Amino acid sequence: MTSPTPTSIVARYDVIVIGAGHNGLVCATTLARAGRSVLVVEAAAEVGGMAITRAFAPGYRVSACAHLLHQMPLALVRDLSLAEHGLEFAATGLPTTSLGADGATLQLATGGTPSAAFSPNDAAAWPAYHARLGRFASLLHGMLAAPAPRLGTEGWSDKLALAKVGLKLRLLGRRDMREFLRIVGMNAYDLLEDEFKAPLLKGALAFDAVLGTNFGPRAPGTVLSLLYRLAAESAAGSSPLAQPRGGLGALTAALARSAKAAGVTIRTNAPVAQITVAGDRATGVVLANGTEIAADRVVSSVNAKTTFLNLLGTEHLDTGFVRRVDHIRSRGIVAKLHLALDRAPAFTGVARDALGGRLLVSPSLDYLERAFNPTKYSQFSAAPALEITVPTINDPALAPAGHHVLSAIVQYAPYAITGGWTEPSRRAFTDAILATLEAQAPGIGASVVGCELLTPLDLEQEFHSAGGHWHHGDLALDQFYMVRPVPGATQYATPMAGLYLCGASCHPGGGVMGLAGRNAAVRMLEKGA
Ligand SMILES: Cc1cc2nc3c(=O)[nH]c(=O)nc-3n(C[C@H](O)[C@H](O)[C@H](O)COP(=O)(O)OP(=O)(O)OC[C@H]3O[C@@H](n4cnc5c(N)ncnc54)[C@H](O)[C@@H]3O)c2cc1C
After folding, report:
1. Which of 66, 318, 445, 510 stands 20 to 30 A from 475 (CA)?
2. Where are the domains of the chain?
């Protein structure tokens, strides 16, 4: 982007937050409630980032990216008074149904418990597995709501935080500690093969281990991503898998109202072109239209790569740091398909109650791994894995009377495919997804009256998120906790004085959780903001 010529400074704030995604809004509200004057500047025409609801066909609305809420702590929802600011739920505690071939289905209750009738052996193995993973997830639990310690410092807070992690591990007891260390770097495929028999159960559990990541179930570290998801869900302390009434945009609209009530000023259609620096300190921002706004501190919810390399500029950073930022892997692999339907879809073997829940097409570990394989060669999955919701079952107002919306998260679709995302390749991928749906819901194709496909490239362009990545950067062992997003920027502060990060590329990562935003604000206040 060419730097605009700054016009005169039009205002001054204690803090400018770049980006009004859910993390930016949580961060802004927390700072404003502590008495700071806060301006949020958002590139898009509306707030919400990747958690918005919008029309994709005349009369049909859908959660454009995130469609289920399951990781935001209930304490945060209460603290920000989101119910008072209009947040309602169309449904909570949604069940998951794993769809197989020939109409076979397996229903998983809240918490993942499989129905005993389906596989008595697996039902018998479930309680011990569930309890064990629950104990391990609780180890990660406390790590989510606090900054990750920095590596190699003399700071007591870093040493204490590390010691706490070690102590929690030790308190697991010898057997669990050994088991945790055995499985944490393992792949989900091997773990689930050891534990269960039913392909539908293993496929569904593995899907949650790889959702939003650049991995198939055989990739090392996918047990960690599974534990991480479980930790975030249990830290949320709410009914997991909830559907806000009006879609995820209703959540971020409530967050924006909460922010305004705390005194935050929000400007949309205000893309930041540059973070200004004077005397080795961030001093504000210049918008794309040239308006310069000054602040004592700037906090960016934009992904780390864009923040450092484009908005700040490498001339302000040392070479080693720039190299680490440049190496962040942030190309997404998740697509989204939205269908407008002129009637309710009929999935074989799925009752109406379950149709309002989450449906998974990940019928076995091998199916999921095969769906991943083509991505290694820059191809999309010809038989993709899907997380499907039909939000209009619980929230009919999203479509005209009697009509429905289908929202599907699709894995896998690389950011860059051989030959590019052209009209023919988009059509071919849409057809592959529709064929996968048709096998589960015969006749669904004939009911489609509108369709939208969002590839990671579309997500990048439409949501101002480089790489279009779910987490703004892979959540993998080498980009996790103490090294997220990169050493030198792990506690929301950055090498540039006065510049902080607060989005999904920071610890604890993406998902509509709000903890990156909250942790960043708390850290800034501790540091004297
Ligand atoms: C297809 C898909 C499905 C998903 N489904 C789920 C789900 O069901 N449940 C779940 O919990 N999570 C889901 N996620 C993940 C979740 O949506 C994200 O991790 C989360 O929304 C990130 O929030 P954020 O506030 O950190 O960043 P964002 O939501 O990306 O917000 C960043 C904001 O910064 C703005 N911005 C960028 N550049 C500039 C600039 N230069 N100037 C000003 N503003 C700028 C952007 O417009 C945006 O509003 C999904 C993600 C994808 C891609």
Report:
1. 318
2. 9-55+65-90+244-328+472-526, 126-236, 330-463
Kindly state if the Cβ of 384 falls inside 6 Å of ligand 1.
no
Report yes or no: 341 and 406 within 8 Å, Cβ to Cβ. yes
Q: What type of residue is 242?
A: A
CATH topology of domain 330-463: Guanine Nucleotide Dissociation Inhibitor; domain 2 (3.30.519)
pLDDT tens readout for residues 308-325: 999 999 999 999 999 999
**Element holding 372 (H helix, E strand):** helix 365-372
- 91 Cα to the center of ligand 1, angstroms: 22
Query: Residues 450-471: pLDDT tens digits?
Result: 999 999 999 999 999 899 999 9
Helices (H), 145-221: 156-171, 174-183, 188-195, 199-210
- Rounded to the nearest angstrom, the gap between the alpha carbon of residue 369 and the centroid of all alpha carbons in its chain is 21
R_g over Cα of the chain: 23
Q: Is the CB of 150 under 6 A from ligand 1?
A: no
Mutate to test the pocket of ligand 1, among 72, 207, 302 (most ligand atoms within 8 A of CB): 302
The two tokens of residue 159 are: 């040493």
| CA 387 / ligand 1 centre spacing (Å) | 18
The answer to whether the Cα torsion of 36, 514, 339, 245 is positive or negative is: negative
Using a 10 angstrom Cβ sphere, with 0-12 exposed, 13-18 middle and 19 or more buried, the burial of residue 448 is: middle
The length of the chain in residues reads 529
Q: If you write DSSP's letter for every residue of 118-158 in order, what string do you get?
A: T-HHHHHHHHHHHHHHHHHHHHHHHHHTSPPPPTT---HHH
pLDDT score recorded for residue 175: 93
Report the run of H or E that residue 26 belongs to, with start and end. Answer: helix 22-33
> Which residue among 512, 518, 519 has the greatest number of ligand 1 atoms within 8 angstroms of its CB, and so is best to mutate?
512
Q: Name the β-bridge partners of 339.
A: 406, 451
Q: Side chain identity at 482, as an amino acid letter? A: M
Supply 298's token pair. 């700037």
Respond yes or no on whether the N-terminal peptide bond of residue 415 is cis (omega within 30° of 0). Answer: no
Phi, psi (5° rounding) for residue 89?
-110, 135
Q: Is residue 8 scored above 80 in pLDDT?
A: no
